[in-house]
Each structure stands twice: as C-alpha cells, then as structure tokens.
Amino acid sequence: MAPGGTGEGHSVVVEVNGVVRGARVPGRRLLSDFLRHDLRLTGTHVGCEHGVCGCCTVLLDGEPVRSCLTLAVTVTGRAITTVEGLADGEEMSPVQRAFAECHALQCGFCTPGFLCTATALLRDNPRPTEEEVLEGVSGNLCRCTGYQNILRAVRRAAELMAGEG
C-alpha cells in the first residue's frame, strides 16, 4: 500500500519518461503526489495546489496538464513526461539549454512547469511569434524573473531546435 493511503488502493501503471512504473494508491491520490511520493520523481513541483501556477505541469501523452488537478488513477496506461525526462541522457534538451543560457530562472521553483509547457509549445509551433510565446506560457506563474528572460529562452529554444546557432 502506498504511504498515506488506506485499504487496498488502486493499481496505477504508467510509462514515465520512457519507463513503465507503477504503484498502488488511494483513489484520491493526485498525479503530482503519485510522481513525487510514490515514484520519487521530485522534479515536478507543487505550488498552489489549485491548478493556477503551473509549477506542477507535466506532459500527459505529450500534452501539458496540471498534475495537481489530475487524479493518478485516471492516467493508468498513458505516457507521462516530467522535467526529468526532457533531457536525452546527460544531454539537456534545447529548451533546458536555452533556459540556462538566457538565465530564465532564479529560484527555479516554477522552472519544471515552464520547461514542460515550452517543450509542448515548440513541438506544436516550432516558430512561434512573440505573441504566441507570451500566450503559450501565460498559464505559468513566476514570482522572481519578470518573465522577460523566460520569453527570451523560449525564442532561443526555437532557434536551437531549428539549428540556428
């Protein structure tokens, strides 16, 4: 039985970052808690616990979702990518490299959610306009950076993915 649960629980089996993982969890276990506590993938951060801040954003079958609003039992059999799965082995993804290069983080708490959001944005729209970048990340909150370096990093990631420098 998973920590904090009672009774038998529910079996949740998912592909996380390319690896099939699973645990027995209470029916009310949030995906964010399943990832952090049951699977020990602590890169997914939990901020507001109301789906407002975007810190807990992960990719579910490639689409950004708020893991603090998603029940773990609803994702069984699906594929999840967390911030830990964005890199290719030891090689950072273009989005991760751009965030580091453009100093698009300060405390880093919101960064995993921004990285997952930007990854999906650039997959769907490899050459976004300024307005599309702003709209694409508008669901994620940052209390430190003022957003300019985050927006710059998303544009830089698009350049890196296009092979431009």
UniProtKB/TrEMBL annotation:
Start and end residues of each 2Fe-2S ferredoxin-type domain: 10-86
Pfam families linked: Fer2, Fer2_2
Gene3D superfamilies, A to Z: 3.10.20.30, [2Fe-2S]-binding domain
Annotated metabolic or biological route of this protein: Alkaloid degradation; nicotine degradation
This protein's UniProt keywords: 2Fe-2S, Iron, Iron-sulfur, Metal-binding, Oxidoreductase
InterPro entries hit by this protein: 2Fe-2S-bd, 2Fe-2S-bd_dom_sf, 2Fe-2S_ferredoxin-like_sf, 2Fe-2S_ferredoxin-type, Beta-grasp_dom_sf, Diverse_Oxidoreductases
GO function term, MF aspect, one: oxidoreductase activity
SUPFAM superfamilies: 2Fe-2S ferredoxin-like, CO dehydrogenase ISP C-domain like
Matching PANTHER family: OXIDOREDUCTASE WITH IRON-SULFUR SUBUNIT
Protein name per Swiss-Prot or TrEMBL: (2Fe-2S)-binding protein
Species per Swiss-Prot/TrEMBL record: Bailinhaonella thermotolerans
